[in-house]
Write a structure and sequence with these properties.
This protein is of the alpha+beta class and about 200 residues long. The chain has 6 helices and 9 strands, in the order ααααααβββββββββ. β6 (about 160-165) and β7 (about 175-180) form a beta hairpin. It binds zinc ion (ZN). The site of zinc ion has 8 residues, from loops. Zinc ion binds near residues 121, 123 and 172.
Length: about 200
């Protein structure tokens, strides 16, 4: 021990070498740390706000919505990612099978020509050609824009047996379907306005 101490005291080269080793080790730790944080920021999705999500939906034009032919890719998001994108009312309806109040909703009395997209993922769901006044207080359609745009699921909540309608792309709850609709299908797709995003037909 004493000898070592002497060595450190008198051998400048040795001391410098020890210093270099420590210095290099410190640099190594810093570089690894920087790499790790760079990897983390690459892997972690940047936070998406409700505004960003609205911007994403606003970029989908009538022509784009009309040209959608099939649901090829599922949209899967964590609960936290849904909460970032949706308002609390939209989240309650789309992700928690909620129902909005009748009459006092955005699209009940809305009859402009265009397409109604899924508020969750932007998939085309209904065309205004199939919208009609069901006098139920909710926007109603007699058919989805494509058969594979929606999926049906048995719903036994509230002591009733109903058929729930979900978006086939992101599995968000949209509303229910009933068999008291008009011709040609006899169906009434009773939807929540908050689950939809309307895209007007472009001027020709
Ligand atoms: Zn969707």
């Amino acid at each position: 021990m004493f000898n070592t101490f002497i060595l450190f005291q008198h051998d400048n080269n040795h001391i410098n070498y020890r210093y270099m080793v420590h210095h290099r080790a410190l640099l190594f730790v810093i570089i690894i740390g920087l790499n790790a944080s760079a990897c983390n920021s690459q892997n972690r999705n940047p936070a998406v706000t409700q505004y960003d999500h609205e911007q994403f939906l606003n970029k989908i034009t009538y022509t784009i919505a009309m040209s959608e032919t099939a649901n090829n890719e599922k949209v899967v998001r964590t609960d936290a990612e849904w909460k970032e994108r949706l308002s609390s009312e939209e989240y309650r309806i789309l992700r928690n099978h909620g129902t909005e109040l009748p009459w006092a909703n955005k699209y009940n009395s809305h009859y402009e020509e265009g397409i109604y997209l899924c508020k969750g993922c932007g998939q085309s769901l209904f065309h205004s050609d199939t919208k009609y006044n069901s006098r139920s207080g909710w926007p109603s359609y007699w058919a989805p824009i494509r058969e594979d745009a929606v999926i049906e699921k048995e719903d036994r909540s509230f002591f009733m047996v109903r058929t729930e309608i979900l978006c086939s792309k992101c599995d968000s709850h949209l509303g229910h379907v009933f068999d008291d609709g008009p011709e040609p299908t006899g169906l009434r797709y009773c939807m929540n306005s908050a689950a939809l995003h309307f895209v007007p037909k472009e001027e020709e």
